[in-house]
Specification:
Layout: E1 15-18, E2 26-31, E3 42-47, E4 52-57, H1 60-65, E5 67-71, H2 72-75, E6 80-88, E7 91-99
Antiparallel strand pairs: 1-2, 2-5, 3-4, 3-6, 6-7
Length: 100
């Protein structure tokens, strides 16, 4: 049995949330993707029952920089558990986000 490591091609929208658990009002989202003109990346936060509570379409500059900031005072997230998803076409990655 051969176990291969996860590469950027099998997981094209890997990202990290900082800090997590979140205690303040600023969430930093870092990711490592290759910039290609015309590609669309979306960042979505949903509650645990699947309702979208925040959506952000990444700009070309954010994709080139590899990060962006979410100001939670604009989003109004209550304390609890959420799912954060980075989407590029048919590819996506999901992470749990805890707000304290």
């Amino acid at each position: 049995m051969v176990i291969s490591s996860v590469s950027a091609e099998t997981n094209p929208v890997a990202f990290k949330l900082y800090p997590n658990p979140l205690t303040g009002d600023v969430l930093q989202v870092n990711f490592d993707v290759e910039f290609k003109p015309g590609q669309v990346y979306n960042f979505v936060i949903t509650n645990v029952i699947g309702q979208v509570v925040y959506t952000h379409n990444l700009t070309d500059e954010e994709i080139k920089k590899g990060s962006f900031t979410v100001r939670l005072d604009e989003v109004k997230l209550d304390k609890g558990v959420y799912l954060a998803k980075m989407v590029n076409g048919d590819h996506s990655s999901v992470q749990k986000l805890v707000v304290r």
